[in-house]
Amino acid sequence: MSMMWFIVLVAAATVAAQPKAGCPTTCGDLHIPYPFGTTQGCYKDEDFFINCDTSSAKPIANYSTTTIQVLDISLHGQLRLAGWLSWDCYNSNADHSWSFFWIRLGQFAISNTNNKFVVVGCDTYAFIDDFWGRRFTTGCTSICKSLDDVINATCSGIGCCYSSFPKGNMGYNVTLKSYNNHSQVLDFNPCSYGFVVEDGAYTFSSLDLINLRQRNDFPVVIDWGIGDENCSQATKNTTTYACMDNTVCVDSESAPGYFCTCKDGFQGNPYLSGSDGCQDIDECSNRTSNLCSQTCHNLYGTYTCSCLPGYKGNGFKNETGCVLEDKSNGFPVMQVALGITVSLLLLGIFISSLCWVQRKRKLIIIKKKFFEQNGGMLLQEQLSERIGYNDMAKLFSEEELKAATDNFHESKILGRGGQGTVYKGTLPDKRVVAIKKSRIADQNQVKDFINEVLLLSRINHRNVVKLLGCCLETEVPLLVYEYIPNNTLLHHIDPSMKLSCLPWKTRLRIAAETAGAISYLHSAASIPIIHRDIKSSNILLDHNYIAKVSDFGASRLVPLDQTQITTLVQGTLGYLDPEYLQTSQLTEKSDVYSFGVVLLELLTGKKVVEVNRPEEDRNLAMYFVSSMKKDRLFEVLDSRVVDEKNVGQLREVAILASRCIRVKGEERPTMKEVSMELEGLIAKEKHPWDGKNTNSEENEHLLGQIYGTGSGSTSNSMGFESMRNQVTFEMESGR
Q: Where is the Protein kinase domain (predicted)?
């Protein structure tokens, strides 16, 4: 059984008007202010029609011609509607039923600041896109194996996850997917759920995994506005301008058009004229509405204060107030007043000095607390015990880094990411550095964090961004790296950036340098390091286009007696190893897969996830493998780098990339093997071979080695289908 719920609301023309007399202003318990209304002539236009259903004992207000209940209407440009739930269910008989919801608004918009897209399920991935599927797509994944894994009131991806979406959405469409048709969690979670809900209105419970379809309390906040012009445009047309006397025009937050509010000192309906419109507030009628010490005088739109006879001052409590006049003779009033003033001034200076000293002591205590909390004592102990660390892992003070970044000014921000914010700074010795505000997710990991800092500080590889030191005096640790000035590899190969094309020779060298750096981390470092987030945006380029691998915030150290470690799945969609995604077992082959995707970017110049390609080809790895199977390699290569001289070299790199992105990690090469192959291709340029002597049979043989013929094809075909089933999100960019 399947259902697709949809709502289409059509915008109407905006005409300045006033409601007729005697219009109903309530429907049940709901107050309905103009420009909204329930009967003809009582609402501004069709966008503001509220259908009051009186068929039941308690009247229900529905929006326009739909059955969507209106919960609240605010004259400040928002209304709350009863939300809608999409679901996708399975049973033990393998029956499948679903109900997906989509909505398209004509004039109003789904508020992006007051709503979240929430997904509930233990075998679920879901996404939400705009109604037309062209402007945005986002979503999240929710996985769990038992109810014991679930944490109530938390949507962190275990049973429940959530995602934000951009502003200006006139509609949306929800799609739900399952990895295994809920077969492994059917006894406690037969369904996947997805819905847009007001931020803070929904609290996740493990009971929701069993049956959420019985609940209907999912309020959604809608931004509304008058017409489709902003305030500066609307005020020019007095015949359609909706704001009446004593009002202020405000541009709608995300919907087209504007809304009106009363000026300070006035209250009422800003869309109505006369006594129902914005009228003067008599602040003097209520002592809590004014700041007068003695006498209040109401004025149009404001008020003023005065003092009774025998008192002086302006009458305002927050200013001079009212002070009894001194009429005594011969008493040195001025001298006494001056003495009191000086005494109070000296007392104030003394108290301020004490407060300053106290604040200074408190700041020192806080810094010491953060230093110990972030592992500072452990780091100092390690530095004192190990020869060779003192010159490598420097402990910076918070003041040094504040001075280097102009107190972490926004103009110094180089970028933001899931692992923190990166600032550009200049040290006193004129060195330009990148300073990253990172975080430790778990205080139990402090020792691992300190060991990682010590290890990374000793890495001295020309293709790895150098860690210069850290600051542990702040609430979150600050890491100081060398500054790489020429942006990221992604910035230079993305066609949308419209930069000059990197030639193939440079791309191949960058690939070889990156592979060498990852190989060094895997095998040459004192303790193997798995980067876990290899992607083109984490490969920096200096002025000479020398590659520098960066961002070790997601990296993990591998004990020498282990080949894999179990972690919470982390990485970037499109680059994420499908085997790691399914098993949570992190190995060095996970980095090999991610590097293979980077090779595909260098070969094709295409985005890792591209919504304009057919659904089965949106993931670049799947698209490339499919093209290789169909012998269409040169159709997907970047035409800007293909020429007769490098055809053979491009083919060999394509074959290497295909090996790297095999679904089974054991079938992928090691990074050392990848590095040696790329270095070999570069060395081969000294003895040119452009593939002119390679006939079509040899080409087929080369491709056959990747995809197999005869008995060798089964494993690879299955791997290709497995890759097709991995998580694929539709996004504007896969990076």
A: 408-690
- The catalytic residues are 533
pLDDT tens for each residue of 202-215: 999 999 998 898 78
Cα 519 to the center of its chain, rounded Å: 31
CATH of 285-324, one of 2.60.40, 3.30.160, 2.10.25, 1.10.30: 2.10.25
Compute the distance between CA of residue 265 and CA of residue 303 in angstroms, rounded to an integer: 9
Query: Phi, psi (5° rounding) for residue 185?
Result: -130, 20
Tokens of residue 73, six digits: 């209407």
CA–CA separation, 173 and 626 (whole Å): 29
* CATH architecture of the region 489-724: Orthogonal Bundle (1.10)
- What single string gives the DSSP state of each residue in 527-575? S-EE-S---GGGEEE-TT--EEE---TT-EE--TT-S-EE----S-TTT
Q: Give 488-504 pLDDT, tens digit per residue.
A: 999 898 877 766 788 99
Burial class (CB in 10 A: 0-12, 13-18, 19+), 538: buried
CA 451/CA 440 separation, integer angstroms: 13
Which of 396-400's residues contact partners 24+ apart within 8 Å by CB, and which partners? 396/469, 396/470, 396/471, 396/478, 396/480, 397/471, 397/473, 398/367, 398/471, 398/473, 398/474, 398/478, 400/427, 400/428, 400/471
- What is the fold, at CATH topology level, of the domain defined by 376-482? Phosphorylase Kinase; domain 1 (3.30.200)
State mean pLDDT over 439-465: 71
Q: Would 285-324 and 376-482 be classified into the same CATH topology?
A: no
Strands 467-471 and 394-395: parallel
More confident of the two residues 415 and 378? 415
| pLDDT per residue as tens digits for the range 515-526 | 999 999 888 666
- Structure token pair of residue 570: 């982390």
Rounded to whole angstroms, the Cα distance separating 594 from 574 reads 8
Q: Is 195 helix (H, G, I), strand (E, B) or coil?
A: strand
Token couple for 186? 């059917």
The full set of domain ranges for the chain reads: 2-79, 82-223, 285-324, 329-363, 376-482, 489-724
Q: What is the dihedral of CA 341, 343, 345, 347, to 10 degrees?
A: -150
CA dihedral of residues 34, 39, 41, 46 (deg, nearest 10): 80
Q: How far apart, in whole angstroms, are the C-alpha atoms of residue 528 and residue 252?
A: 54
Structure tokens at 355: 């407060």
- Give the C-alpha separation, 141 to 479, whole Å: 30
**Within 13 Å and on the Cβ side, how many CA atoms surround 304?**
6
C-alpha pair distances (Å), 710 with each of 674, 691, 723: 27, 26, 21
Query: What H or E segment, with its residue span, contains residue 333?
Result: helix 333-373
- Measured distance CA(433)–CA(314) in Å, rounded: 56
Task: List b or e across 709-723, with b for residues whose CB sees 16 or more CB atoms inside 10 angstroms.
Answer: eeeeeeebeebbeeb
562 or 363: which leads in pLDDT: 363
φ, ψ (nearest 5 deg) of residue 611: -75, -15
DSSP 8-state symbol, 524: I
Q: Which residues of 155-172 are buried (b: 16+ CB within 10 A; e: fewer)?
A: bebbbbbbbebeebbbbb
Are 219 and 197 contacting, i.e. CB atoms less than 8 angstroms apart?
Answer: yes
